[in-house]
Specification:
The protein is mainly α and 157 residues long. It contains 6 helices and no strands. The protein is 75% helix and 0% strand.
């Protein structure tokens, strides 16, 4: 019997068969994920923002709970990937001398451009994005990409 993760990845893959759409997703899904972390990091926090005290890190922890429920290898992969992204967002924040508005602007631009390309990819594919059917596919998109990497290097997810 198929595992829940396999069912979700297969369902997501149904609307991602076209090679151009897949290529677009390889660039845009991580870009959207990064930009969302940037937007969350930009929101004022209860204390001074830092690598561990910001809304992006808290959102990552919640996403990690979801991935842990699906697959330990996916959880480990996203600890590394999500952690690197939050670290990158923190680096941009520090490079802009703590200017949260500049970080938000950079993140909005990345987010908007990536989504335009995502919808172009789905227009080429001829199928609606999966998240329009089920919002959890917003978290499955990154896992779908990671599963290809895992398959390539021989890690069972």
């Amino acid at each position: 019997m198929a595992q829940q993760i396999d069912i979700l990845l297969d369902k997501y893959g149904e609307s991602h068969q076209n090679a151009v759409n897949k290529l677009i997703h390889w660039v845009c899904v991580p870009s959207i994920m990064f930009s969302l972390f940037g937007l969350l990091y930009s929101i004022p926090f209860l204390t001074e923002r830092s690598l561990f005290t910001n809304w992006a890190t808290y959102a990552l922890v919640l996403a990690l709970v979801y991935y842990m429920r699906l697959s330990v290898p996916m959880f480990i992969g996203f600890v590394l990937i999500g952690g690197a992204m939050v670290y990158g967002v923190n680096a941009i924040y520090e490079a802009t001398y703590g200017d949260a508005k500049m970080l938000a602007l950079i993140s909005v631009v990345i987010f908007a451009v990536a989504w335009v390309f995502q919808f172009v990819g789905h227009k080429i594919e001829g199928k609606k994005p999966s998240f329009l059917e089920d919002l959890q596919f917003l978290l499955i998109g990154p896992a779908w990409l990671l599963h290809f990497i895992y398959e390539k290097i021989g890690i069972k997810y």
